[in-house]
Design goal:
Helices cover about 85% and strands about 0% of the residues. The relative contact order is 0.04. The chain contains two helices and no strands. It starts with 12 loop residues before the first helix and ends with a helix. With about 90 residues, it is mainly α.
Amino acid sequence: MGSTATAVPTDGLKQRWFGNSFINVSGGLGTAAVSLLLPAIVAKYLSAGEFSLWSLALQIIVYVNLLGFGLQLAAARAVSYAGDAV
């Protein structure tokens, strides 16, 4: 029996790739800008104690996100495998 190859449409694939890349880079630059500017703005309006509490809360949120990243990936993988079992 002969195998039939499915054709992958490449129309606009390059344009989509560049568009998605531009959006991802823009999002990363925006996040970097906020990360650099926000502490300076917050420090201007908060007292030393309030700023230290804000910084501590921010660090706790970052650690929770880092630790939870593997859990999110594992949950997504379990859901995808569960869909195959049905």
